[in-house]
Design goal:
The structure holds 2 protein chains of 2 kinds. Chain A is mainly alpha-helical. Helices cover 76% and strands 6% of the residues of chain A. Chain A is built from 11 helices and 2 strands. In chain A, helix 7 runs parallel beside helix 11. The mean pLDDT of chain A is 92. The model of chain B has no long low-confidence stretch (mean pLDDT 88). Classes of the chains: A mainly alpha, B alpha/beta. Chain A: GO terms for molecular function: ABC-type transporter activity.
Chain lengths: 274, 304
């Protein structure tokens, strides 16, 4: 395993997609607090560092979709995955080494956003308003979500021979998760009642009427579960800083990582390489 | 004889297509084994199986005395290197970086032997040039260098001269011969460029429709392909009597055709045959090549 990881890290040093992603995350980490500061100056409203600090969750999925599909896809398109198998490396080890590499990259990418954000954001916007424990829990959740994206995209990339198809599937999947997350958020945000203008004996009156789109009971629990469980839902919760089960989110992420990695290793062991 | 690789009734299907249909072959240690067959005969499939890229449906193979079902097969594979179809190299990396990558995968801590390896394959002057800018021949040689990184005893090359220019073919041939003669590496080469293979191979395996049609050593092949005169006569018994009297080596092909393996005096032969009331219908010098031998084995066009 250490041999394969070492080889992956050497390749990483020369990988232009890795460096492009890193520069993008660094730039975002600098740009976001500066923009918030400028906005604060213009509108004269207090803009804390809390808002937007976990904004990297919003695009880490897309960045990792591009990186994983191209980094692992290259092994298929250039046939170099064969070099590992031919010399007797176990398939499970090959899979795990690629997953670990992608996961570490996702953590590095998040750090590339967090560190400049903190360095620039604290002097400009002040320190966190939230309890530091909550901040750390949100940070862990974002990092775990990034690892979940890595595990899902590693699964797709390791089981697909075609680099271009892999890239398209990964990017579409990343967007799909975000859309699902936003949709689940919308469903859960529906108010219980709506104010409606109704005709009464006294003329027109505003009355509170039950909102048919409001979810309650089992339906709400199910939607809330998927909102917490799926990485798209976690992304929305981290960026909006509105969450009901924050401590559960990293646990759900861990479950997804274990499930996708086990399934990926199982199918990769059976996969016929060319 | 010691064998590096032995396969026993290997079968492999791709959906309804039988790529390998009970293939049995034996690669002797120290040989350059030419694996001959037309496109789709099953050459690459066999190579994929022995490289561990795919699994056989039935049958087995033994690599360095270890069956493919045994756990130790992974260790046995460390003694082999392979270039399957296209060279497996990172196009965005230089030749040195590609080798460093493979050294890491193999767990070789020192890069000291990389310059020697590059010199061996003739890529010592590529500098910072990325592999994507290499010629096809250079890419093939880099692929072989990557395969040689683990200092293998057994090298598997799938169509190594495909698409190379004449100079590239010569360089590849010299490299393979050097690896076999100077480094005692057993080489398995699949190819359908028979003329090229005939300059290299010490053993041949002819495959067709996923089956081994014939395994033969280069000496045996030379024996069966030796120069001869094919003669067609009206009375083959008379011809046999005459040739026996002349103490000439021959082989009867049919009722009126025979091959004569000697430089004969045609006037004397025709005179002698005339005395036996036998007419010569035709006579032609034959120099059977590997190609004609192969066509004879697998049936050429009729078999397509």
């Amino acid at each position: 395993m250490s041999k394969l990881l070492s080889a992956n890290f050497i390749r990483l040093k020369k990988d232009k997609f890795f460096w492009s992603g890193l520069v993008f995350m660094l730039a975002a980490g600098i740009f976001f607090p500066v923009m918030r500061y400028m906005d604060m100056r213009q509108t004269q409203t207090i803009n804390r560092i809390d808002n937007g600090f976990f904004g990297c969750a919003l695009f880490i999925g897309i960045v990792m979709a591009v990186f994983c599909s191209l980094f692992i896809g290259t092994e298929y398109s250039e046939g170099t995955i064969r070099n590992k198998i031919i010399i007797g490396q176990k398939r499970g080890t090959v899979y795990l080494s690629n997953f670990i590499t992608c996961s570490l990259v996702s953590v590095v990418m998040c750090m590339a956003f967090f560190i400049p954000y903190l360095c620039i954001g604290i002097p400009l916007l002040g320190f966190f308003e939230m309890d530091i424990k909550i901040v750390l829990l949100f940070a862990v959740t974002v990092l775990m979500t990034a690892i979940v994206f890595s595990s899902i995209f590693t699964l797709i990339s390791m089981l697909n021979n075609n680099k271009a198809v892999t890239a398209v599937i990964c990017i579409l999947t990343a967007f799909l998760f975000l859309i699902i997350g936003a949709q689940l958020h919308k469903m859960l945000s529906e108010p219980e009642t709506n104010m409606a203008l109704v005709m009464t004996d006294n003329g027109q009156e505003y009355q509170e009427l039950p909102n048919p789109k409001f979810l309650d009971g089992g339906g709400r629990k199910t939607v809330q579960f998927f909102y917490d469980f799926l990485p798209g839902g976690q992304v929305v919760q981290c960026t909006s800083l509105e969450t009901e089960n924050l401590s559960l989110l990293p646990v759900y992420s861990l479950v997804i990582v274990v499930l996708t990695t086990s399934a990926g290793m199982f199918f990769f062991k059976k996969k016929e390489l060319k | 004889m010691e064998y590096v690789l032995k396969t026993n009734a290997l079968c492999k299907n791709y959906k309804n297509f039988k790529a390998l249909n009970g293939l049995t072959m034996n690669v002797p240690k120290g040989a350059i084994y030419g694996f001959v067959g037309k496109n789709g005969a099953g050459k690459t499939t066999l190579i994929r199986l022995i490289c561990g890229l795919q699994k056989p449906e039935s049958g087995n193979y033994v690599l360095y005395g270890l069956k493919n079902s045994e756990k130790g097969i992974l260790k046995a594979r460390r003694r082999m290197g392979a270039v399957v179809e296209t060279p497996s190299i990172y196009l965005e990396l230089t030749a040195v970086d590609n080798l460093k990558e493979q050294y890491r995968i193999l767990g070789i801590p020192s890069y000291d032997s990389i310059p020697d390896l590059l010199k061996l394959v003739g890529l010592e002057n590529t500098g910072k040039k990325k592999a994507k800018n290499f010629s096809l021949g250079m890419k093939q040689r880099l692929g072989i260098a990557v395969a040689l990184a683990g200092d293998p005893d057994f090298l598997v090359l799938d169509e190594p001269v495909n698409g190379l220019d004449p100079q590239g073919i010569i360089e590849m041939r010299e490299l393979i011969l050097k690896l076999n003669r100077e480094y005692q590496i057993t080489v398995l080469i699949s190819s359908h460029i028979l003329d090229e293979l005939s300059r290299l191979a010490t053993h041949y395996g002819f495959i067709d429709n996923g089956r081994m049609v014939k395994e033969i050593s280069a000496e045996e092949l030379e024996e069966s392909c030796r120069k001869c005169v094919r003669i067609e006569v009206t009375n083959v018994k008379a011809l046999v009597r005459v040739l026996d009297e002349m103490k000439t080596d021959y082989n009867i092909i049919s009722d009126n055709v025979a091959d004569i393996f000697a430089k004969i005096n045609i006037s004397k032969l025709t005179l002698a045959l005339s005395k036996e009331n036998c007419e010569v219908i035709s006579m032609q010098e034959r120099d059977e090549s590997l190609e004609s031998y192969y066509v004879g084995l697998v049936g050429g066009k009729d078999n397509e």
